[in-house]
Write a structure and sequence with these properties.
Elements lengths: L7 H10 L6 E5 L5 H9 L4 E6 L2 H10 L1 H6 L2 E5 L12 E7 L3 H4 L3 H10 E12 L3 H17 L3 E7 L4 E7 L1
Parallel strand pairs: 1-2, 1-4, 2-3, 4-5
Antiparallel strand pairs: 5-7, 6-7
């Protein structure tokens, strides 16, 4: 399947996640579907469950990745993480890019849900494009604290060009 144009920041993030063919992945905030496209191209027996609160994000992801939806490799739903009941009992990876939830408000319930569903050795990958350098420290501190308070071991990675920070919570 030919890849649509995908920004370098998304390619870097998905490469860092090292998605394996049999992984079960949750994407929070699927937006235009670029991350879903890259992730699904790496899956064979694994599956991606992508969610977005926005109807337009869900629609764009479904259109862009129609073949993956049809094959059953991708499920896309309009839902908030707080009310999500993940159809996959165990997740290997959770991915989000520029999702503010983890640093703008209390999210203990959402992090607890992720901790419950991510397999031991699995990870939550929170990526943020550093468009506002003055916010990077706050984003890293608050997102790291939310994951650590939820039982994850946290590490931080950065890419300079384009400027992206990743907060990784390992179970």
């Amino acid at each position: 399947m030919a890849l649509h144009q995908i920004p370098a920041r998304i390619r870097w993030a998905v490469e860092l996640m090292d998605v394996q063919p049999s992984d079960h992945v949750l994407e929070i905030g699927c937006g235009a579907g670029a991350g879903a496209e890259l992730i699904c191209n790496r899956l064979t027996t694994g599956k991606l469950f992508a969610i977005d609160r926005s109807e337009s994000g869900v629609d764009r992801t479904k259109r862009r990745n129609h073949a993956f939806v049809e094959s059953g490799r991708l499920t896309v739903r309009q839902i908030d993480l707080a009310t999500l009941r993940v159809p996959v009992k165990r997740l290997h990876k959770v991915y989000s890019f520029n999702v503010n939830l983890f640093w703008v408000r209390a999210c203990a319930d959402e992090v607890a849900l992720l901790h419950e569903r991510v397999v031991p050795g699995g990870a939550v990958f929170l990526f943020y494009e550093a468009k506002s350098p003055e916010l990077v420290r706050t984003i890293v501190e608050k997102s790291s604290k939310a994951l650590a308070d939820g039982g994850f071991r946290v590490s931080v990675v950065e890419q300079k060009a384009p400027a992206v920070v990743g907060i990784i919570g390992r179970r």
